[in-house]
Amino acid sequence: MRILLVEDDELIGELLVKSLTSQHYTVDFAKDGEEGWNFAELYTYDLILLDLILPKLDGISFCRQLRASGNQTPVLLLTSQDTSITKVAGLDAGADDYVAKPFDFQELLARIRALLRRGGSALPPLLEWNNLRLDPSTCEVACDGKLLHLTPKEYGLLELFLRNSHRIFSCSALIDQLWSFEEPPTEDTVRSHIKGLRQKLKAAGVVEDPIDTVYGIGYRLKPVQSGREEELNLEKVADAIANPVENEVRQVWKDVVEKIEARVAVIEQASHKLLQNKVSEEILSKAKVEAHKLAGSLGMFGSDEGSQIAQEIESLLDNGKKLKASGRKHLGQVVEALHQELENLKSGYKTEPSVVDAKADDRPLVLVIDKDQELVRESRSQSSEAIAPGQLTQARVMIVDDDPQILTALQTLLSAWGIKVYTLAHSQGFLEAMALAEPELLILKMEMPSTSGIELCQIARQEPQWAGLPILFLTNRHDTLTRQQIFIAGADDYISKPIVEPELIGRILNRLEHNRWLQNLAEIDTLTLVANRRKSTQELNHYLQWCHTHQQTMSFAVVELDGLKQINYNYGHEVGDRILSQLGELLRQMFHSQDVVGRWGGTEFILGMAGITKGEGVRRLGELLKTFRQIEFITTSNQSFHATFSAAVVEYPQDGDTLEALYQAADIVLNQAKTSGRDRVLSS
Fold first, then answer.
1. Residue 649: phi, psi to the nearest 5?
2. 168: pLDDT confidence band, cut at 50, 70 and 90?
3. 211 - beta bridge partners?
4. Strand ranges (DSSP E) for 53-194?
5. Mean pLDDT along residues 122-148
6. What burial class does residue 276 get, using C-beta atoms within 10 Å of its C-beta: 0-12 exposed, 13-18 middle, 19+ buried?
7. FRET label pair with 538: which of 112, 182, 275, 532, CA 20 to 30 Å apart?
8. pLDDT tens for residues 504-539?
9. What is the mean pLDDT of residues 611-633?
10. Hey, is 122 helix, strand or coil?
11. How is domain 131-221 classified at the CATH fold level?
12. Superfamily of domain 2-117
């Protein structure tokens, strides 16, 4: 398999090249978008790993250019801008998936394998089960050489099961995989398709039914070899030696540590010059670039805390000479923290890992709560408890179990599926641990000393924050009374020991998928795919707090589509919805990933741009309006017309120091734009 890596940070690039080469991939490495594009034109690749922010040609433009040329090579975006707007922009441009920096190598490798399995290579492999054969290159299914005639949905179901032989799919997961957003079927419809597929396979002479029903969960591919399922061997998993990638990371660290030190030195120089009021724009610009690169690279070497510190430095340097004295002093303190984190990281890499160290693989994040402060300090040197704000690319699961062997085994197993695992070996400090980890799913052992899993479940359900959190139990008991206790306490499901790996993974993934689907419904406006009022209000208030703390400005804008009521009357609501959807898409594409974009209802959209003056806000919205005017909309009767919007821009704290005050100020300006003839952008 041949992979093109386009990454301007040579530290991350070198680390990825070594790691991927150790996994038997052939890797071409380009250090800017233009060089990467030349590679893509010359050679055929199975996958492209593409950084979002690149010199000469950025990742979004690269993606659009690639797709416009007809090249359908799978693209995996690497981004340090972990926001929904960035992700949507990347996917809309044609990327197939994304990974946020700093990323876990196991997750990255898993996502690469997943994309390659989707058929990105020129000659997809045959998929076989007993005497059944599916050829993805021709989309043909045969039994003993005789072709079967399947409907598109039956073919899709069979291919999905054959490609994911160890996964259990719920009906909702099958709908997500095989049906579009516009045509979601009921679960009964899914079952009917599976029934039809089974009947056709049986009639064709397939040896036995390849689709196994896992009652209460969903469906999976039946193992070819009959017999008792292999149970999760806890001792075997716990004693596994660390992945070879860890050794590659350690070797690369030796090669790049001096470069990292040089980057920190550049940042320290800029900070000192700022304090002396003698800094040049060139030094500031260089320091910002180095901070951005450190934010991506430090996490690759196990320092999530260092990545977060570098991100904060990059944010502070964005303001440059505008930083006030207090801000410059704070920058100096943060830079000192970065220097100390680098020293800690260097100390950690001086000791070669032993076999015991390898067993305690820290790829999953481990949360340690213990009265023994020395133990806590020791544990903190091996793992990072930091969670990047809003980072949802990786599912977070917390496990409470007093058996360290179980914890180690589950950490290793779940991390291989791209899940970040937080563990707690006792019930003490349970709520504090929950607050730190912010899990998307909680796994509890039922019987534990001091406080049982049942009691912990009840405690969690009494907290508003965790009232809707999916909770699974691990238990040795199988009786009816135990099941009743589990569900009365508020749990969603339970898993009986001994743990069967496919069942455990299936239940966890199904719960996470369902929970994220609900979360997406609760946060995204389904017509325009921007944040809804509740979500965008939360983000705006967060931005206002940040601006207050760092003494920064923020532009707030209200955008209103002109004449929607008349458009609906003349051409129908479907056309009106299409215009709203198009405006939402433009807002997502043309505004930066760190900007807040939301729809507050009807024709009204809002924008929050931290660190931006209202003059710059007017300019950016003017460009948006110019682009929007040029879009031609076609009605069902083949009539064409153009649409416009009106917008008002105000500034924090000049026009208001709360969201409500800013909105009221913007509303006054918006009315002025309307009375002046609409189709314009005004500021206070």
1. -125, 130
2. confident
3. 221
4. 75-79, 97-100, 127-129, 132-135, 140-143, 146-148
5. 79
6. exposed
7. 182
8. 887 888 788 777 776 666 788 888 888 889 889 988
9. 90
10. coil
11. Arc Repressor Mutant, subunit A (1.10.10)
12. Response regulator (3.40.50.2300)
Residue with tokens 């965790």: 466
* Residue linked to tokens 């032989």: 165
Q: Is the pLDDT of residue 372 over 50?
A: no
Residue 238 identity: A
* Helix/strand/coil for 140: strand
621 vs 577: CA distance, rounded Å: 21
Helix axes 430-437, 453-462, angle to 10 degrees: 60
Average pLDDT score over residue span 385-412: 67
Q: Which fold would CATH assign to domain 396-510?
A: Rossmann fold (3.40.50)
Same fold, 131-221 and 533-683: no
Identity of the residue numbered 405:
Q
Look at the block and give the residue holding tokens 């260089």: 286
For tokens 């991939």, the residue is 25
Q: Which two tokens stand for residue 290?
A: 């180095």
Amino acid at 81: Q
Does this model's pTM top 0.70? My answer is no
Complete edge-to-edge strand list for the sheet that includes strand 146-148:
127-129, 132-135, 140-143, 146-148
The domain locations on the chain are: 2-117, 131-221, 249-345, 396-510, 533-683
Q: What six digits make up the tokens of 580? A: 């709203």
Q: Return the pLDDT at 622.
A: 92
Residue 438: both structure tokens together: 């912010």
CB 41 within 8 A of CB 83: no
- SS3 track for 70-110: CCCCCEEEEECCCCHHHHHHHHHCCCCEEEECCCCHHHHHH
> ω into residue 353 within 30 of 0, thus cis?
no
Q: Which CATH superfamily is domain 249-345 in?
A: HPT domain (1.20.120.160)
Please report which confidence band the pLDDT of residue 498 belongs to, taking 50, 70 and 90 as the band edges: low
More confident position, 650 or 128: 650
